[in-house]
Amino acid sequence: LAGFLAFHSARRQHILASEPTLAHRLIAALQAKAQVSVITQNIDDLHERAGSQDVWHLHGSIQHTVPIGFRGDKYRRPWLRDIQLGERCPITWSQLRPDIVLFGERLYDYYPPRKWLCEADMVVVIGTSLQVEPAASLLRYINPAARVFYINPDSNALSSLPFPGNPMCLCADDGMTK
């Protein structure tokens, strides 16, 4: 557990030192012009720092802690300093850990994003390999009438697209694919 805490403390420090990219800022700017929601597998807060308001973090947030064995808003606290082995939650007395989803754990906010995808008129999927489940399965719920854009630097991911209809695919190696 000490190694796990040290690893994620280092990741958190790296994220804190990182800045939102142009893509993060452009997505945030779209929210001023249209109803835009962000569904992310990333555990950072770069979308929020860029100005996005409506962000669903499927894999939790490295900016928060929870006690081991307890998750959710009731137990979530801001992560202000490195977590030490033996540092416990004052409510549960369980060891604190980063509020991130590990393999085998239930995703956060699975149903609201799924509902949003069922109703969306347009969906833009950016930079995912579509290999991490169950997050990749969310894409099966995209409204069949929605326009879908898939942007990924790796054209090999095209073979695993689960989208209904015929998405527009943009890949770095060949420009527009479809």
Task: Explain what the structure shows.
There is one protein chain. With 178 residues, the protein is α/β, with parallel strands linked by helices. Helix content is 22%, strand content 21%. The chain is built from four helices and nine strands, in the order ααβαββββαββββ. It has helices spanning 2-17, 22-30, 46-50, 111-119, and strands at 38-40, 55-57, 60-67, 77-78, 96-100, 122-126, 147-152, 168-171, 175-176. The strands form three sheets. The protein has a four-stranded mixed beta sheet, with no helix packed on it. A hairpin with a 3-residue loop joins strand 8 (168-171) and strand 9 (175-176). The radius of gyration is 18 Å and the shape is globular. Residues 172-178 have low confidence and may be disordered.
Structure summary:
This protein has helices at residues 2-17, 22-30, 46-50, 111-119, and strands at 38-40, 55-57, 60-67, 77-78, 96-100, 122-126, 147-152, 168-171, 175-176. With 178 residues, the protein is an alpha/beta fold.
Features:
four-stranded mixed β-sheet, globular, 22% helix, 178 residues, disordered C terminus, 9 strands, alpha/beta, three-stranded antiparallel β-sheet, 4 helices
